[in-house]
What does this fold into?
Amino acid sequence: MPSLPHSPAAERNKEPILARLLAILGSHGAALEIASGTGQHTVWFAAALPGWTWQPTDFDPDTVPLIAERIAQSGVGNVLPPLQLDVTQQQWPLTSTFDAIFCANMLHIAPWQACAGLMAGAARHLVPGGLLVTYGPYFEREVPTAPSNLAFDESLKARDPSWGIRQLDDVVAEAARNGLALTQRHAMPANNLLLVFTLAGRQPQA
It folds into this structure.
């Protein structure tokens, strides 16, 4: 078997994220994953949520076949072939709608246009009442920032000035412009947040 890229961060956070998804999502549905990366989250969530069909995607076309290989090695049968997807494009290469969209650790490692594109695309491709779930670090105006997140933000901007940890208020405002409301906020390990945005139609489970 070929060696596949491995993300220690994805390995660490997959269990706490899954615990939240099990409480948020219903027993079955269709989910779109944005910025699937190594595919570790994809196969982990698919195995634990067999009633859900998962559509992985990634911006990097070279990553797509590696995700496909990880899916094949995992043996999970409820994952569709991965697609290359640029969230900033007005047309996504999708022909269906989804009950949920999941996106981890993208907003801070991309220009702001990626956040705008994610929210606009979610509004187009979620069913009414569908959920957009994001995971990663955010700055909150009324919450002290962890020194590790300040240092991380500086390192991101040193790599690319258009990158950086986003202000939660700005992300919420961009979501609202596209008909998505922040309905859940969960503090997660390592100073991250899991956020649930709901497209008008229904409230997520508690």
Q: What stands out?
A: Confidence is low (pLDDT under 50) at residues 202-206. Residues 134 and 200 are 17 Å apart (CA to CA). The first helix runs from residue 8 to 24.
